[in-house]
Amino acid sequence: MPRRKNRKTNVKRSYGQTFGTKEDEEERSGDIYDHALTEADQFPENMLKYWRQRRSLFTLFDGSSITGELPLLDRESWYSITPEPIAARIAQRCRCGIVLDAFCGVGGNAIQFALTCERVIAIDIDPIKLEMAKHNARVYGVEQYITFLQGDWREFSKAWIRDRDTNALAADKQSDDLNWQKCQQLNFDVVFLSPPWGGVSYRTLQSETPQKFVPLAPATPTIDVEQDENFYPLSALAPSGGKDLFETASKLTPNVCMFVPRTVDLQELASLVDKNGSQSKISVEEQWLRGRCKALSCYFGELAEWKEEEEVDQE
């Protein structure tokens, strides 16, 4: 899999694009502010912690963006976005030519991928989140590297597979979304999956055979690790379960990264590996922030063989 160095944010490319008329974008842009939570008094008490942690979600909440604008998040995104330091770490490991972000949300991961990859295809089914992602990409000055597509990633994958099927009818290929046709001919180096976990109460989801959670590495006495948690089942990942999502992604490329809750059963993750096929290895990395393990990044294909010394300092 080709690797590339981090880009400078002032480098201009021509291929990042969005679809739709200018009038459509202007009409939708008003909607995103109606859905955005931008002040502390807009948050219910049980979500205020996310507002207090806003600079770890997007560092440009400090107001230092070139445009002078702040990032925008809707209610769900405040608790589901990947914190920026973690997104940056994942982007370093997934550094490549073309990456597909299958559930881009408001763009936390896509923005970081734009700094390490030649091109980012970012898909989300929610039009409001997608418009916020475009806004946030502009705030970070990387919109020219990202192609945003609205729709169900699973349908896009079907269209991608159909485009390569010599037995598929030409009429079926032509019936695909015209926006998708601009991207479904691409060959992806990496597919990134960060599907919905089930909301703020995802920790209450239990597998059919509850087990106690054991950290991947012993925690130091100063780290507050919650005890007696049950494993999170991969089947709880929306919209169709982790196994189905992974198998679909593997048809596009063997290089897949899944971002999942820290309490996922490692044995269930290991069951995704095909020891006799292209998916013969898995590498699991704990993602820590403020002294707590927040999630797991699971790497397959060539991503599983990544070595720390491969990381390239930003130019």
Automatic annotation (TrEMBL):
<dbReference type="GO" id="GO:0005634">
    <property type="term" value="C:nucleus"/>
</dbReference>
<feature type="region of interest" description="Disordered">
    <location>
        <begin position="1"/>
        <end position="27"/>
    </location>
</feature>
<dbReference type="InterPro" id="IPR029063">
    <property type="entry name" value="SAM-dependent_MTases_sf"/>
</dbReference>
<keyword id="KW-0489">Methyltransferase</keyword>
<comment type="similarity">
    <text>Belongs to the methyltransferase superfamily. Trimethylguanosine synthase family.</text>
</comment>
<keyword id="KW-0808">Transferase</keyword>
<feature type="compositionally biased region" description="Basic residues">
    <location>
        <begin position="1"/>
        <end position="11"/>
    </location>
</feature>
<protein>
    <recommendedName>
        <fullName>Trimethylguanosine synthase</fullName>
    </recommendedName>
</protein>
<dbReference type="Pfam" id="PF09445">
    <property type="entry name" value="Methyltransf_15"/>
</dbReference>
<dbReference type="GO" id="GO:0071164">
    <property type="term" value="F:RNA cap trimethylguanosine synthase activity"/>
</dbReference>
<dbReference type="InterPro" id="IPR019012">
    <property type="entry name" value="RNA_cap_Gua-N2-MeTrfase"/>
</dbReference>
